[in-house]
Predict the 3D structure of the following.
Amino acid sequence: MMEVVRISLQLSVLSPRITQINTNFYCSAIMYSPQITQIKQIMDCVAIFLHPGNQLFSLPQRFHQFDNLKDPNLKSKIIFHKSCFITSIIIYICIMTHDKINREDVEALLQLCKVEGDINLNGIQWSESLIQLGIKHGVGAWCYYRIKNSSLNQPVPEEVMKPWKHLYFHTSIVNQHKLNIFFEIQDLLKEVGIPVIGLKGIALVGNVYTDEGLRPMGDIDLLVPEGEGLRALDVLLKGGATQNFVPRSALHEQVHAHVRAITYKGVLIEIHQRLFSLGNPYHIATDYFKYTENHAIGCHQMTVLNDVWFGYHLVSHVASNIYKGGLRLGWLVDIALLFLKQANVNDFISEITQLYPNKLKDIKKVCYMALLLISKPEMIHQSKNISGIEGLVYQGVAKKHSIKKHKQINILESIRVPGIIKKLRLLLRELFPAKEYMIKRYKSDETVYWKWYYKRLWPF
């Protein structure tokens, strides 16, 4: 049974940024339980926040359907359909954008982001908010590409296409530059015996997307063998890179997924030493370089994770970020396109989940959200394979709580790191980071930096 009270309270905080949420969602997100009366009361409370003026929407008829179910087996089944996932996506996107959003814009983007087949433009209301939402969530260029390459049932206004078209050409130029930077870094590290795997955006542009202009990326993520992160960092710093950040402590830099970020020829670079930090619940201790394949990009070769491990990284990254603070719609497009490459999507999802069964439920939730972008309906209606959707809406924290939550996540990850001494050292430095970090983080001078420790402790 999902934690209805916590979820409802979080939704009530988030609700000012959500408009026109369908009551269908609440029913579809609930698994039958004897505590149905409590759920009714909670949902009525949520309704107060969702509908200003205390004008409650009534749910008794919908819940009455649950109460009258005779078959005990039917009662235990999850009511699962597209409406639930679409509304979940809306909620997650609200958190990510920290802005007002409406259901129509998200549903329109979901339709425009379909990764196969023609786009149905019926019912799409073209607006500035829709255009900007597409840009914010990294799908503006993709939407432009889909519109240009589909048999449309109606024309698209030129004012809609212009910003997305501009984004497409801009992304193409920027990504070609970033690909060149990646191969330059790859050659620098290869000279000193450090192999490199492309991760996230750089791997997607070179592997999954057929056009450099379709997928924007903010930085370049690359993976080196565990234990080689600091050496790779030193090589690039000597090669002209500049340091952007200071870690909380030397130990933090050793246990985190990547070492401190740097800028190389104007591009932000993150050197990963593992896919996730040692304390992250999605971390798997293994030699990732055993699960790679090479792809030709122009006259270069890029090493990437094989599809199963790449899929695990993408899906787990989304699941982890949903918990931390929201969903970027472009991430679902990434996963859906990777799914399209597979001969059997269901088998592929099973292979991903088998890598880390402890997170089966969360990983499958993200997979099925991505499947909304695939046209084949038989891929979507797989509710019998899901153990529960009670966690779909557990992230409804407003922006003002995000700092506190981020600190709490850092503490939890510190606690999960192996070794009592390491845990204690990480927890101490989480509360009282190194002097260099405090000066850099709070732009303070050496004489008063200690005052900022109060600011760090205050959210707790």
